[in-house]
């Protein structure tokens, strides 16, 4: 006798063991004899995992569509602008706090709102253009031939190079440090994503 039963025999077992349930056979739902049994529930026949995923996706997609349709257009614009405003306000806060003599890389590193990442690149030309921001050198342009291309983005702020704190440094200072460290095998650049 086969260990695994077909869907048809599973339905037969469910019909006899669960007196007041609706059973899905994959083709259509069948109503089983009514009963006043208090613990009744809907039992589903096994379904393919891809079918289950697609069904769940479609259901979630429909729910999101209904929520978007119910939301006025003015609220959508407000939500979009609200998400940008805190980050810009935070950048201004960083610039203002930089005026404090004690402001340093540690302040940026230990702030949970900051997204810092480290890039390791071989020595040589960086192929970037930086500008002054008050926080540190901001990446303005990246040459597609640069070793930093796709590792950093335009708008990122360089806060350290080879363990030298560049928070609040001017671009001239950044280039002096980079040129002094040019003979090293590898450079470590720490970037603040804004």
One letter per element, helices H and strands E, the order comes to: HEEEHHHEEEEEHE
Amount of beta strand: 15-25%
Give Rg in angstroms.
30 Å
**What is the CATH first-level class name of the largest domain?**
Mainly Beta
- Give the CA-CA distance, first to last residue: 65 Å
The CATH topology annotation of the largest domain reads as Pdz3 Domain
Described by strand count, sense and barrel closure, the largest sheet is:
4 strands, antiparallel
What is the CATH superfamily classification of the largest domain?
PDZ domain
Secondary-structure arrangement, i.e. CATH architecture of the largest domain: Roll
Fraction of residues in H or I helices: 25-40%
Question: Regarding quaternary structure, how should these chains be classified?
Answer: single chain
The average pLDDT value, as a whole number, equals 67
Protein name: PDZ domain-containing protein
Region (Disordered): 1-46
Biased composition (Basic and acidic residues): 24-34
InterPro entries: PDZ_sf
Describe the structure.
By secondary structure, the protein is an alpha+beta fold. It folds into 2 domains: 7-57, no CATH class; 105-193, Pdz3 Domain (Roll), CATH 2.30.42. It has 5 helices and 9 strands; from the N terminus they run H-E-E-E-H-H-H-E-E-E-E-E-H-E. Strand 7 (157-161) and strand 8 form a beta hairpin. The protein is elongated. It starts with 6 loop residues before the first helix and ends with a strand. The relative contact order is 0.10. It comes from Skeletonema marinoi. InterPro entries: PDZ_sf. This is PDZ domain-containing protein. Residues 24-34 have a biased composition (Basic and acidic residues).
